[in-house]
Amino acid sequence: MYTILAILAALVLYAVFIYNGLVKARQMAEEAWSGIDVQLKRRADLIPNLIETVKGYAGHEKSTLEEVVALRNKAQAVPAGDVEGRAVAEGLLGQALGRVIALAEAYPDLKANQNFLELQRSLETIEGEIQMSRRYYNGAARDLNVKVESFPSNLVAGQFGFAKKPYFEIANEADRAVPTVKF
């Protein structure tokens, strides 16, 4: 009788241990997503300043500038939990930003503008931080996904509604490239 109770107690403790591990992994993934979201917000906040600076030099490039603003708004409108939708929207925005930065080649005065250069450096820094945040999130999502799919933790995960997290990936290979800026 005591043996059976001891075995049941051990199983309950093991289930609690697994549950707590799943909770920790889910929280790490959510915290990692928050880090990506912060960096994407920083980039989105930088875009209006960049656009205004470029407008002064490249007024007839209006369609390119309007596209960046529209893509920025579209990316910000993606629901908070839609990782895949956000990845697509941010990939398109990254491509458009690359085209804006490339405009500097056609406008020597813009290329020499100190404000533009500072904005460009800030954008490069933020792009690097987005990449680091994306790697951290994907690692946290991987850890959670392994626990959700592995036996015996998958039994506990299924009982308590733990689900896999999608990776923050960019589908289009051309979108993977960080805009290069050369002077």
UniProtKB/TrEMBL annotation:
Its main location: membrane. The keyword Magnesium does not apply. Keywords: Membrane, Transmembrane, Transmembrane helix. It is found in: Membrane. Gene3D superfamilies: LemA-like domain. It is a single-pass membrane protein. GO terms for cellular component: membrane. Pfam families: LemA. Belongs to the LemA family. This is LemA family protein. It comes from Ciceribacter ferrooxidans. The lineage of its organism: Bacteria, Pseudomonadati, Pseudomonadota, Alphaproteobacteria, Hyphomicrobiales.
